[in-house]
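Per reviewer request, we include the raw input and output of the structure prediction for the construct analysed in the revised manuscript.
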Amino acid sequence: MTLLEPFTRARHDLWSPAGRNILWRSLGLSVMAFVVLAIAVQYGIDHVTTGWARWVQTLLDLLGGLTTLVLVWILFPAVATFFVGAMIDSLIDAVEREHYPAATARAQSAAAALWHGARFALFAIALNLLLLPLYIALLFVPPLAPVAFLLVNGYLVGREYFDMIASRHLDPAIAHALRKSYRGRVYVAGLVLAVLFTVPVVNLFAPMLGAAAMVHLFHSLRP
C-alpha cells in the first residue's frame, strides 16, 4: 500500500452510506469544538493579561483576533480529536466491518476510550503551549514556524491515531513494537493528517478521515 492510498480509501469510506451518517454528526461536533476552543482561548488571554501594563493590553486587544486564531489553529487537532471520539469509534467499526470483517477487535470500555482521548488531548495541548515561544520566534523565519508545527504534530497525531486502532486488536507491547517497526510510515501518515488539520473547512473532517485512513494503514502493516 502506498503512503497516500490509505487516505484515498478513507475518502471513499466517508462517503459510503454508513460513513456519511457518522460524518455529518462528527462535523457538528467539530464545529462545536472549534467554537468552544475559540471562546476558551479568548477567555484565557483576557484572564492572563489582567494586571499587565496598559500598552501591552492594548496591543493584545488589537492583535486579539489574530492571537486567538493562531492558538486555535495550534490546539484544534487535539481538541477536535477528543470531541469527536465517540464518532471516531463508530467510524472505525464501520470501516472494519466493511473491509476487514475477519479482524476481531478487543473489547474496550467507553471510559477507557474517553481516558485515552483525554490523555492525548492534554499532552498535545501542553506540548504545543510549551513550544509556543519557539513557534513565535520562528515566525521571523517564515517557512520554519509552520514546518516546526507540522513536524511536532505529525508525530503526535500519527502516534495517537495508530495507537487508537492498534489497541483494538493488539496487546500494548505488541502495538508499540509494530508502530516502532513502521515508525516512518506512521509518521508520514501523521504529517499528512497534520497538514489536513491546518486547512480551513477540511480540518473539520480531518479527525474522521485520519481515523479511517489509519485503519487501512494498520491492517496493511499488521502481521
